[in-house]
Amino acid sequence: MFFKKNDIIVVLSIIIISGIWWLAYKFMFSDKPVKAEIYYYSELAYTIDLNSGAEKTFSIPQNDNVIFHLYEDGSICFEQSDCPDKVCVHAGRLSVIGETAACLPNGIVLKIVPKNNRGADDPDIIIG
């Protein structure tokens, strides 16, 4: 047999703990008002309120070839980009504090942050 009984117990434990941690994170930070900050080569280029309830498509003045989409539900994503690999477009919708997506060939980073001042308990980034 390829797996031993202890291996399966360890893997299931990791999955269960990860699921509990993810649910706790979503519960703690999903109801906070958020905004999106768009950086162009490490300088803040644009800020948009995600709780406006409006749906629109826009780009930043520094690069018209990268297009963002803001949804009514308060999420935002890279909709279109002229970069070769399209990793930014495949990142999907972002809506929770700490989520980040980047279009590195164009030097653009999209970051979800608290609408009000940051607190000590707010995460800086989410990995995964």
Question: Notable features of this structure?
Answer:
128 residues, globular, 2 helices, four-stranded antiparallel beta sheet, single chain, mini-chromosome maintenance (MCM) complex, domain 2, alpha+beta, 23% helix
The CATH topology of the largest domain? mini-chromosome maintenance (MCM) complex, domain 2
Mean pLDDT: 87
Shape from CA axes? Answer: globular
Give the strand order, joined by hyphens, for the main sheet: 2-1-7-6
Domain count: the total is 2
Structural Rg: 18 Å
Number of helices: 2
What's the main sheet like?
Answer: 4 strands, antiparallel
Count of extended strands: 7
N-to-C SSE string, H for helix and E for strand? HEEEEEHEE
CATH architectural designation of the largest domain: Sandwich
Strand content: 25-35%
Structural class: alpha+beta
Amino- and carboxy-terminal Cα gap? 31 Å
CATH homologous superfamily classification of the largest domain: N-utilization substance G protein NusG, insert domain
Report on this model:
The protein is of the alpha+beta class. The protein folds into 2 domains: 31 residues; 82 residues, Sandwich (mini-chromosome maintenance (MCM) complex, domain 2), CATH 2.60.320.10. Helix content is 23%, strand content 34%. It contains 2 helices and 7 strands. It has a 4-stranded antiparallel sheet. The longest helix has 25 residues. It is globular and about 60 Å long. The protein starts with a helix and ends in a 14-residue tail after the last strand. The model has no long low-confidence stretch (mean pLDDT 87).
